[in-house]
Amino acid sequence: MAPLPRTRLYLDSALAAGAPVPLDGPRAHYLRSVLRLEPGARVLAFNGRDGEWLAEVARLAKSGGELVALEPVRPQDDGAADGPWLLFVPLKGGRSEWVVEKATELGVGVLQPVFTRRGDVGRVNLERMAANAVEAAEQCERLSVPAVREPVDLARMLDSWDPERPLLLAAESGRAAPLVTAVTAQKGKVPALLVGPEGGFDPGELDALLRLPFVLPVGLGPRILRADTAALALLSVWQAVAGDWTRAGGDARPPFRT
Question: What domains are there in the chain, each with its CATH number?
Answer without folding.
Answer: 8-74 (2.40.240.20), 80-246 (3.40.1280.10)
